[in-house]
Design brief:
alpha+beta; coiled coil; EC 2.7.7.65; Rev_trsase/Diguanyl_cyclase
């Protein structure tokens, strides 16, 4: 072997070592890549499991949402039914309230105002009269010998007479006048913006109509007359006191032969308050 051979052997060994080192480096890099692939695979697997978990949660949520929507739909239908029922109940109560107000304010037999409603309207007209000073009068009426009609023909016949009288009563008054049934066969009217003399003319017109009228009942012609007391409400006089004066005039008409109109005496200053007599 020549002197150059050891150097050549050394160079070959170094080259082999370099190749080995490169191979080892490549293996290390392959191990790193393998670790990265394994980590990526684990991450993918974890992600896959998480995705499946989220899908299951989403499916469950969709089912829950569907159930909730179905429940809400049922509740909405029930609420609509309840609302419809409530609306009907409110309408029924309003109709009942209107009917109760009508019963409280209108006499069923004659169609005139009831005593209570008549007095309420009278107080309203009294306040209006106090503001405008235009006069206010009261008529108090009683059918003469009405008991004879009931005794001879029965109470149903008497009711027909009262019903007919209610029609005659309204026809003799003005549109703004307030007629009412005061009790039994006794009636009253509040006449706004009218003085005593004009009120007496209204009363006389009514008296004549009643005297000339007939109520047909089972072939019989029933006739009644009416006595009327008239009072003009004085300034600062209460409605109750004016009614009491008209009542005294009514009893004067009864004493003087019935079927007549009597005017009440004027209110005297300092007169004591008197109650309204029973109807």
């Amino acid at each position: 072997m020549s002197a150059d051979e050891p150097e050549e052997e050394f160079s070959l060994y170094a080259h082999e070592q370099a190749v080995i080192r490169q191979a080892e480096a490549m293996l290390e890099r392959l191990d790193e890549v393998a670790d990265g692939v394994r980590q990526l695979a684990r991450a993918y697997q974890d992600g896959y499991h998480e995705s499946r978990r989220l899908v299951r949660i989403s499916d469950r949520m969709q089912l829950d949402l569907h159930d909730a929507n179905r429940t809400l739909s049922l509740q909405a239908r029930e609420l609509n039914t309840l609302n419809a029922t409530l609306v009907k109940e409110i309408e029924r109560r309003e109709q009942l309230e209107q009917e109760l107000r009508r019963i409280a304010s209108v006499d069923e037999l004659t169609g005139l105002h009831t005593r209570r409603h008549l007095l309420e309207l009278g107080e309203h007209e009294l306040k209006r009269m106090a503001r405008h000073r235009r006069g206010l009068s009261v008529l108090l009426l009683d059918l003469d010998h009405f008991k004879r009609v009931n005794d001879a023909h029965g109470h149903v016949a008497g009711d027909r007479v009262l019903e007919h009288f209610g029609t005659l009563f309204r026809s003799a008054l003005r549109e703004d006048d307030v007629p009412g049934r005061f009790g039994g066969e006794e009636f009253m009217a509040v006449l706004p913006e009218i003085r005593l003399e004009a009120a007496a003319e209204v009363a006389e017109r009514l008296r004549v109509r009643v005297a000339e009228a007939e109520t047909q009942w089972k072939g019989a012609r029933l006739r009644v007359t009416v006595s009327i007391g008239v009072a003009e409400v004085a300034i600062d006089e209460s409605l109750e006191r004016a009614i009491a004066r008209a009542d005294r005039a009514l009893y004067a008409a009864k004493r003087n032969g019935r079927n007549r109109v009597e005017l009440a005496e004027a209110e005297l200053p300092g007169a004591t308050e008197q109650g309204v007599p029973d109807a």
